[in-house]
């Protein structure tokens, strides 16, 4: 039996979030899965996500919201495509069939609809449906979190912030999981460049819940964006014991810690975190967040002149099986970094050609639509850079620089593409590109004053183009 602290049928009903199941056990397990999702943590006392998902299916095999949360979580993890994974595609179909054969609430029907839209890659429409749910049910945490994740994948920064703002007044301190809204709100604030406010709100969240890893993550971003490197290092270290327990986000928080070292030019310290935390975890879990972090970290280090050749080969073992997935462009670009780094040209070619094919008939898949307008060109820009054709790389990358946000991820994650463009301009033998690179560095220095990395790049540009 699951802990009594989780909400049963009556508790959900009294909150206006009725679940169409007569099994108290199933309703509590739904709460247990939701709680782990919000906390970014496998709770081993409950059997983790997997244990709870098995148990909920046993407790009530026809519980629609049980299917919505378990299949929905697999979809938002972006580790698998319904185009290629028949088991996942049939789990989506099964949920839709169950929903149409039962008398469930309008809210639950909308949840099924949003999950189905997301499974087809129609992220914008899925978000519209989750927002419809939140208008009538502002304390529906699953709708709020799924929308937050989907906005993140679209680089929809303002929507990610406002989605949380709209529901805040309806959450009371006694509402289960209410303190975690601080981290969600803070992240939206920082992605819309309200750094001081973002830090304040995240710290309020940590005062309520010291092990809220998403609030920690938000503060890590603030220090990254302001290039307050020593503050960031001290903060991550002083709170490591708190955020480390959130195993789903721990690797990503270690990645942030390593970025401060890269910023300072302390590459050995960054590589130590890569080996002991980031790569180790991504190899063990196959988590997409951990995997893209490993990709971008090696790419950043390589741009800085660090030799990471053997690590590319190891990481290729993790990314290569995902070459044909094409769930998000953000993932694709990171897989491409690895195949280029490992000099695995057949894999790089296959990835780009697969994307070109999908871009021809994107349907309502938002990521495949984007592949046609910016995705393929961005991939080609990376390939030209990898082949030493720096001038062509600049010609491809520069026109896209203000659209990179559409690939999704955070400002901190997308900064790898800003750095790439700067490196391409500096290495190009075109004088106009070299001047452009210096302009981009002035801009970077103004937006992130006191950045050691920017200073190093400026010195290199001066030395190269005397």
Brief summary:
The chain is an all-alpha fold and 466 residues long. Helices cover 72% and strands 0% of the residues. The chain has helices at residues 9-14, 24-39, 48-59, 64-76, 86-101, 106-119, 123-136, 141-154, 157-167, 181-191, 195-208, 213-225, 229-238, 240-243, 247-264, 267-285, 288-303, 309-319, 329-341, 345-360, 366-386, 390-397, 411-427, 431-447, 452-464.
Order of SSEs = HHHHHHHHHHHHHHHHHHHHHHHHH
Compute the number of structural domains: 4
Mean pLDDT score, rounded? 97
CATH class bucket of the largest domain: Mainly Alpha
How many H/I helical runs? 25
**Global shape:** globular
Question: Helices and strands: which structural class?
Answer: mainly alpha
Termini gap: 72 Å
Q: Biggest sheet, open or closed, and with what strands and sense?
A: none
Strand content: under 5%
Could you say what the CATH topology of the largest domain is called? Serine Threonine Protein Phosphatase 5, Tetratricopeptide repeat
Q: If you compute it from the alpha carbons, what radius of gyration comes out, rounded to the nearest whole angstrom?
A: 22 Å
Number of strands: 0
Organism: Channa striata (Snakehead murrel)
Family: Belongs to the TTC38 family.
Keywords: Repeat, TPR repeat
InterPro entries: TPR-like_helical_dom_sf, TTC38
Characteristic terms for this protein:
466 residues; mainly alpha; Serine Threonine Protein Phosphatase 5, Tetratricopeptide repeat; 72% helix
């Amino acid at each position: 039996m699951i802990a009594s602290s989780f909400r049963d049928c009556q508790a959900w009903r009294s909150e206006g979030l009725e679940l169409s199941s007569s099994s108290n056990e199933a309703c509590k397990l739904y709460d247990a899965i939701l709680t782990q999702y919000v906390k970014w943590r496998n709770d081993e006392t409950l059997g983790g996500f997997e244990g709870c998902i098995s148990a909920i299916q046993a407790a009530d095999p026809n519980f629609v919201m049980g299917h919505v949360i378990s299949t929905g979580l697999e979809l938002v993890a972006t580790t698998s495509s319904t185009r290629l994974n028949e088991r996942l595609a049939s789990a989506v179909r099964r949920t839709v069939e169950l929903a149409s054969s039962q008398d469930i609430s309008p809210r639950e029907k909308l949840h099924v609809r949003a999950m189905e839209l997301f499974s087809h890659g129609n992220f914008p429409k899925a978000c519209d449906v989750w927002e419809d749910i939140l208008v009538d049910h502002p304390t529906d945490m699953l709708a709020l979190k799924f929308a937050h994740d989907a906005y993140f994948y679209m680089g929809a920064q303002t929507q990610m912030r406002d989605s949380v703002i709209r529901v805040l007044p309806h959450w009371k301190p006694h509402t289960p999981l209410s303190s975690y809204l601080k981290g969600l709100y803070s992240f939206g604030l920082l992605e819309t460049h309200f750094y001081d406010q973002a830090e304040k709100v995240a710290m309020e969240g940590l005062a309520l819940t010291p092990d809220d890893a998403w609030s920690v993550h938000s503060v890590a971003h603030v220090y990254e964006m302001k290039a307050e490197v020593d503050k960031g290092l001290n903060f991550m270290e002083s709170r490591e014991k708190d955020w480390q327990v959130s195993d789903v986000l721990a690797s990503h928080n270690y990645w942030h810690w390593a970025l401060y070292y890269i910023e300072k030019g302390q590459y050995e310290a960054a590589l130590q975190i890569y080996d002991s935390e980031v790569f180790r975890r991504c190899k063990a879990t196959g988590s997409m967040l951990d995997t893209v972090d490993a990709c971008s970290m090696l790419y950043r280090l390589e741009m800085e002149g660090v030799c990471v050749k053997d690590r590319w080969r190891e990481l290729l073992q993790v990314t290569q099986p995902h070459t044909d997935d094409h769930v998000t462009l953000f993932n694709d670009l990171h897989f491409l970094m690895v195949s280029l780094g490992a000099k695995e040209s057949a894999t790089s070619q296959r990835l780009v050609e697969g994307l070109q094919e999908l871009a021809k008939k994107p349907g309502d898949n938002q990521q495949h639509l984007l592949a046609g307008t910016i995705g393929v060109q961005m991939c080609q820009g990376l390939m030209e850079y990898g082949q030493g054709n720096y001038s062509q790389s600049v010609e491809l990358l520069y026109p896209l620089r203000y659209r990179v946000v559409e690939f999704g991820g955070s400002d901190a994650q997308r900064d790898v593409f800003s750095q790439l463009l700067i490196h391409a301009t500096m290495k190009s033998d075109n004088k106009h590109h070299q001047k452009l690179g210096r302009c981009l560095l002035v801009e970077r220095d103004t937006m992130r004053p006191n950045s050691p990395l920017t200073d190093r790049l400026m010195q290199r540009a001066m030395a190269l183009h005397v």
